[in-house]
Specification:
The protein has 358 residues and is an alpha/beta fold. It is built from eight helices and 17 strands.
């Protein structure tokens, strides 16, 4: 499949810079696969739209406030984007300006922390050790001085004195994120539309919620650069599924599942395809490098909530596969839906509106 099929034209004004004033007041495009019917609704109406009760599977990973601004010895500016812990105080990170931070160089905020570059890699990543830290660990440091890693298409100067750190810290996080699982380098954005009140209404009408934790990495958003979709090398992400969610995924004949977002779907699909023999009283830990694209079948989900994704993304491939399970044409169908969404003033990407596929 030629990767150019994943291109589409998006007017810049359709890229959401801010979320909806109230989370569940975002627009919701409803697509019914059996009939091809499209409805334009509000996310707050989700309970009225669903044809029956579902087992919702959602990613409860919390976003690490991973963007740290500091200074190097010369006085120059440094941006450190933490990706994942390696051991103790050593983290994998992206550094800017990378050329001015060779192995052995350090960066710091006086009286707060000092970090040293241990190793650098060809892909632009680096290994960084926090040799001094006012706080008890690196995550606590991030909570106190870091900023959430907003994607570059959200045009916000996070270094500006008037930057509203509190706003993005709250809104670039789901209401059900588990603070003890601060492992995401980006928000699982389909979940940003839920409010506690909406979750309560859904539960009262017979729906149930189950959590997984997928360590969302930046690789999720890397564009496909190969000429053929099939030649793209997928990154790997760690996930954990607790016993109650395992029982739902193992008992698919008894439960209709609705995946909240592509991260939930990717982890669940990886688990279901591997179909390991597991102890249903213990958490399952997995490692997903699964790349889903048409004409693959999705075996873990009956419905999907997702946002509108970037061109050339693996997320478009996954949603396309869900639209036309077992058949080609899913990406073309997704682009038709996106065209309708653009014509109806839907807002795209992380802070944008949502789509429900039934």
């Amino acid at each position: 499949m030629d990767a150019s099929i994943l291109d589409y034209n998006l007017p810049k004004e359709r890229i959401a810079q801010l979320p909806a004033q109230k989370r569940d007041n975002s627009k919701l495009l409803v697509f019914r696969r059996e009939t091809g019917e499209i409805e334009h609704r509000r996310f707050s109406e989700l309970g009225e739209i669903l044809p029956h009760s579902f087992s919702f599977v959602r990613n409860n990973a919390a976003v690490l406030k991973a963007r740290i601004f500091a200074t190097r010895k010369s006085g120059g500016f440094v941006e450190c984007l933490l990706l994942s812990p390696v051991e103790n105080n050593i983290w994998q990170a992206m550094l800017r300006p990378g050329k001015k931070l060779p192995v052995g160089a350090s960066f710091f905020i006086d009286g707060i922390f000092k970090a040293k570059v241990l190793e650098k890699f060809n892909d632009g990543q680096a290994m960084v050790e926090f040799v001094e830290n006012k706080f008890s660990n690196v995550v606590e440091l991030c909570e106190n001085i870091g900023a959430v890693p907003l994607p570059p298409y959200i045009e916000r100067d996070q270094r500006a004195p008037d930057y509203d750190r509190k706003f993005d810290n709250e809104r670039y996080e789901t209401v059900y994120a588990d603070p003890s699982r601060r492992v995401a380098a980006a928000a699982p954005t389909a979940g940003l539309h839920f409010t506690p009140e909406l979750c309560s209404r859904l539960e009262k009408s017979g729906n149930t919620f189950y959590d997984i934790t997928l360590h969302v990495g930046l690789g999720t958003f890397q564009p496909i650069k190969s000429e053929r979709v099939e030649d793209h090398k997928m990154h790997s992400e760690i996930y954990e599924i607790p016993p109650e969610t395992l029982r739902v995924l193992k008992g698919r004949k008894d439960f209709k599942t609705l995946m909240v977002g592509t991260t939930s779907l990717r982890a669940s699909e990886d688990f279901c395809r591997k179909n390991p023999q597991v102890d249903l009283d213990k958490p399952y830990f997995g490692d997903a490098s699964l790349f889903v694209y048409p004409p693959q079948e999705i075996i873990s989900a009956d419905a999907l909530i997702t946002n509108f994704h970037l061109p050339r993304s693996t997320l478009m491939c996954l949603v396309g596969a869900f639209l036309t399970p077992g058949k080609l044409g899913g990406i073309e169908k997704l682009k038709e839906i996106y065209k309708i969404a653009i014509e109806n003033d839907y807002r795209f990407f992380s802070y944008g509106d949502a789509m429900l596929i039934l």
